[in-house]
Amino acid sequence: MSSRLDALNQWVLDVARLTRPDAIHWCDGSDTENDALIARMQADGTLIKLNERTHPDSWLHRSHPDDVARVEHLTFVCTSEQDDAGPNNHWMSPVDGHAQMDALFDGCMVGRTLYVIPYCMGPIDSPLSRCGVEITDSPYVVANMRIMTRMGAAALARIEREGSFVKGLHSTGELDPDRRFIMHFPDELTIKSYGSGYGGNALLGKKCHALRIASHQARKEGWLAEHMLILGLENPQGQTHYIAAAFPSACGKTNLAMLIPPEGYREAGWRVWTIGDDICWMRPGEDGRLYAINPEAGFFGVAPGTSEKSNPNALATIQHDAIFTNVGVTADNQPWWEGIDNGQQPATDWRGEPYDPAMRPAAHPNARFTVSAKQCPSYSPMAEDPQGVPISAIVFGGRRASLVPLVFEARDWTHGVLVGASMGSETTAAAAGQVGVMRRDPMAMKPFCGYNFADYFAHWLSFDRDGAKLPKVFHVNWFRKGSDGKFLWPGFGDNLRVLEWIVGRVEGTAGAVDTPIGLQPTEGDINLGGLDLGEEARSLLFGFDRAGWQAELESIGSYLEDYGPRIPVALMEEQARIAKSIG
Ligand SMILES: Nc1nc2c(ncn2[C@@H]2O[C@H](COP(=O)(O)OP(=O)(O)OP(=O)(O)O)[C@@H](O)[C@H]2O)c(=O)[nH]1
Ligand SMILES: O=C([O-])CC(=O)C(=O)O
Ligand SMILES: [Mn+2]
């Protein structure tokens, strides 16, 4: 092979010497290869065939019951200086990190096959894309990476051309939670992950490469790697605005990215086009606007709650050639989860036991589907454009049962960065640990920023420079609850009403009132026609709670201060300005 692949070949040999696999397989991404892997996994029980008539070429995978979500407490960023990883990351020195991981990898592939997966994050011919190679001993990881990335021969050819790539080493090990770590070495563009087969821990192109390592590269090279969906909103005049939105894990990105407009809007000609549902890489173009690509090629989406009513596009996408992880099944082997709402009943739960609602839900709350984006009816042809799409609005949002109104607009970029930096959200089942606890999750990147958040905020602020035509910044909250504990906003398709207002603000046609936290719509500024919103809903979704925000700004101030002297002065000044204007 040519000399530009020498580094890759040498690394594969070094890893093989350490892990001692029985065989080495270089993945080409072909159908034949995939068929053989699937057949092997079906034979050993890793994959269970689903109903071929209702779900052609689709599979169920039951993970180890202790391996169902990301493990933030076992995820490390290894920089030489601890301060460079920041208080937002667990840290280990690169020397200690490598020593600890290499001890785990020693001999771990005896009796297994080592797979080499060359992949490209982003369209193969895009200057914004980046390549990586994942080495793994898991055929399940190979099958998922094939859906989630541009994997195989074309990626290898690009790696050969460029000579550089991100190195990811993965082994499922023994799936022992006490022998499980996900470590990142940003200065070496290297990832080492051991002991888990779960998506965010094991599909290294996703969170490990496209967010933690890429955020570090992006800072050096002047772009942004973000935990954001990208959608195109087409209006009845046929114009499309592209919107990027950051919501924490399991807080609605997939749903918003695939939104189907509610009655009335559909007929009028409104349409949402899906570019991506989880990750967004963007950089300033020559015209000063931010241009974005989705580095992924598939969706690794939350199954529970997905129904014909909540997300018909997702449901259509997963009708065939999908891998379902930790869902329940019906008596005739159709996938089933809580909230699927299709009139069927589960027979077997995600652990493979007879379904007993007193015992456990049929699907794990973080059960997922893996499916190619090309199968999505709303997938935008622009998602394959090597130049990316120009972003008109950036939207931040979280799960906030109280205080935070339905939507508001930041005054300017600096204010927008503060709004992102002070995001809060209640935790979900996407990560191991307690669910429903409010925590700060700046830009939805708490688990994913590969460096010190203080430096990250400074990087965001730095985009406001001469010639920049930056998107407007907004904050939304679909999850405000009323005194009865129920969501006040219908959400899902009706979120289009909020997107319409956002685009109206971008175009200068929608109204708003000035409040200390930003520009808020009055009830009259958003089309609420046909919705059944009570008195309480209207006042909480559109109101401004002065005392509550006073306390919130104080809490934001002390949160930011915890980052110490590295926190940008401009951000603290912005916090002080808003705190003062609340009075
Ligand atoms: N009440 C309400 N729930 C929503 C809304 N949108 C999404 N959800 C629920 O939020 C959960 C997760 O939504 P997703 O769209 O899969 O979340 P995500 O942000 O893509 O998650 P990750 O893949 O973990 O990054 C599902 O149970 C949805 O039903 C909404 O507008 N209102
Ligand atoms: O990381 C994963 O496995 C899934 C995901 O998108 C998230 O948790 O945000
Ligand atoms: Mn995510």
Automatic annotation (TrEMBL):
Substrate binds at R70, Y198, G199, G200, S249, N366, A367, R368. It catalyses: oxaloacetate + GTP = phosphoenolpyruvate + GDP + CO2. Residues 10-219 form the Phosphoenolpyruvate carboxykinase GTP-utilising N-terminal domain. One of its GO terms (molecular function) is kinase activity. It is an enzyme of class 4 (lyase). The keyword Cytoplasm applies. Pathway: Carbohydrate biosynthesis; gluconeogenesis. Residues 223-579 form the Phosphoenolpyruvate carboxykinase C-terminal P-loop domain. InterPro entries: PEP_carboxykin_GTP_CS, PEP_carboxykinase_C, PEP_carboxykinase_GTP, PEP_carboxykinase_GTP_C, PEP_carboxykinase_GTP_N, PEP_carboxykinase_N. It is found in: Cytoplasm. Its EC number is 4.1.1.32. The active site is at C251. Keywords: Cytoplasm, Decarboxylase, Gluconeogenesis, GTP-binding, Kinase, Lyase, Manganese, Metal-binding, Nucleotide-binding, Pyruvate, Transferase. GTP binds at A250, C251, G252, K253, T254, N255, R368, R399, F492, G493, D494, N495. Binds 1 Mn(2+) ion per subunit. The keyword Protein biosynthesis does not apply. It holds the Pfam family PEPCK_N. Monomer. Belongs to the phosphoenolpyruvate carboxykinase [GTP] family. NCBIfam families: PRK04210.1. Catalyzes the conversion of oxaloacetate (OAA) to phosphoenolpyruvate (PEP), the rate-limiting step in the metabolic pathway that produces glucose from lactate and other precursors derived from the citric acid cycle. This is Phosphoenolpyruvate carboxykinase [GTP]. It comes from Thermomonas carbonis. The gene is pckG.
